[in-house]
Amino acid sequence: MASTAMPMTALHTAARRGWLPMMQRMRGGAARKMCNSRLGRPAPICDLSSKRLSSARQLAGFGAGARAFRSGPLRAIHVCANADQSPGTTTITKHVSSAGKMPKNIQGPEIRKQFLDFYTSKGHTPKASGSLVPEDPTVLLTIAGMLPFKQVFLGQAARPAPRVTTTQKCVRTNDIENVGVTQRHHTFFEMLGNFSFGDYFKREAIEWAWELSTKVYKLDPNRIWVSVFRDDDEAFAIWRDVIGVKEEHIQRCDEKDNFWASGATGPCGPCSELYYDFKPELPAAGADVAEDDDRFIEFYNLVFMESNRNAEGELTPLANKNIDTGMGLERMAQILQQVPNNYETDLIYPILARAAELADVDYATAPPKTQQYLKVIGDHTRAVVYLISDGVNPSNVGRGYVVRRLLRRVVRCGRLIGIKSEKAFTPIVAQVAVELSGGCDPQVAANAQRIYGELEREEMRFVQTLERGEEILEEMMAAALAKKQPFLSGKDAFTLYDTYGFPVEITEEACAEKGLQVDMEGFKASMQTQRLQSQAAQGSAIDLTLGNVLAEVADRLGGQSTEFLGYTSLSSGAKVAAIVSEEGPVEWAEAGSTVQIVLD
Q: H or E segment at 163?
């Protein structure tokens, strides 16, 4: 078959990145738009939803017979006319890389499957993902793959098996402002993991991580760097002497980068991380894997879990030495699919492509700010879909506030890119996230209708006040700029929050786009004033369902009131001021008894 080179096209990009299967699931308009925006041709030109190309104009554009978009060992996508096809049509066929070369068109589900299959072959028992609502009371959401096994690591629960492998859904919101800005920050992500509960330790974990990376995923060994904890001579020696990694590709790091814990307390230990080098042509001297995000991406973390940290920060040895690892699925997809960021992998791109279709914009040619808003929509939509599936509904407290904040960011970003609809658009975008969820959590599809209903109700509730609130915010910012005042007053920010339901974080984002800051001290002062007024309005009302018992407790406590912190914090410590049973105040209560708890 003859083969000649062709310039880059949208179809080439879609095929090169392995998007064809996902584009079959997209609406025809979105698939055509993805292709034709880079071809510079009006729709309809190619219908990728059926993986067939038709029309004489297409054949003229792609050339008769066989034509390769890219030749060489990595991959070739051929458009060929077969004798058994109807006249004037062509079929796209894929030719995967030769053995030993990184498979550029590997899909996210296959990356996940290869990980789980590899560790199953090493004697690990596969387990389903745990809920995003953890049993651990010290954390709000499941933030790491090991969290469902925390009690096992502590020796407080029986191990489900000596070796386990999982794909765990996780949500982190501590750096939400970086979503869509950096190449790889997310709120929702999948963490692939292999765990040993007192079975194997450092050597096996390191050897298998290397085998998986270089033999299964076929990463170039010369492009893998590793880091170890500064005092971990054992791990350093294994990487250098057993695996054969060049010493110049092994870096020692401090606690900030190479000592891992799931929270302020609990199991922890030194770790060793694997990094992929995007710029191997640069010298090794002076390279910093922990700081140079443009050159390196961390894709696998091996935690040697051997200690427990208490509330005072003291470390004590665990009964068993354990292994806890985490590989970010999205990061490995970015590496293997050779795309510039996690958002353009097949795990997220179909979601933001649906949003782009609704806004009638082309992601590939959109301004950077529009691309950023689309990335936020893609990321946050995944997060709220999985959270609602796990029973977390939008509210003003705790986990519910996380969902509300994320969803309202989606709605605002949708409006900023031009999505205008009398009906809610978030359920439409969420349909794609649901379609992509099966390999991670099959229950999401089963809960789809409930998810769509919650999204619609929350979006329409927010939209009712959003338009007027946006107008007022624009007026407030214009007034601040006219006065050459570099900030929005805290009183104004609180008015938007209290009257129009604007999370103060959204106000901060809008102000930042105009070069303004928000007077957070003034905002907090206005919040405190409202609290005091609310408490005064409530007076000293007491629940008297137990007769005079609670009134007596209130008198004993000196009439002190409970300070409500929910406006600014999602969790807080508190002291138990009293325990009240049916008979009255008690010093303690047995398990199973019904009591009321009074907190300070």
A: strand 163-171
Q: Are 518 and 507 in contact (CB under 8 A)?
A: yes
| pLDDT single digits (tens) 260-312 | 886 678 888 999 999 999 999 999 999 999 889 899 999 999 999 998 888 88
Rounded distance between C-alpha atoms, residue 297 and residue 448, angstroms: 34
Q: Using an 8 Å Cβ cutoff, are 430 and 385 in contact?
A: yes
Residue type, 522: G
| pTM summary value | 0.69
Q: Do 377 and 410 touch, CB atoms closer than 8 A? A: yes
pLDDT digits (tens, 9 = 90+) for 110-151: 999 999 999 999 999 999 999 999 988 878 999 999 999 988
Which residues are CB-neighbours of 137 under 8 A, at least 6 positions away? none
Q: How far apart are CA 218 and CA 467, in angstroms?
A: 51
Half-sphere exposure of 10 (CA within 13 A, CB side): 21
Q: Give CA–CA dist 597/577, Å, rounded.
A: 8
| Sheet containing strand 596-599, strands side by side | 584-586, 576-581, 596-599
Q: What does the chain come to in residues? A: 600
Over its C-alpha atoms, the chain yields an Rg (Å, rounded) of 28
Q: List the end-to-end C-alpha distance of the chain, in Å, as a whole number.
A: 79
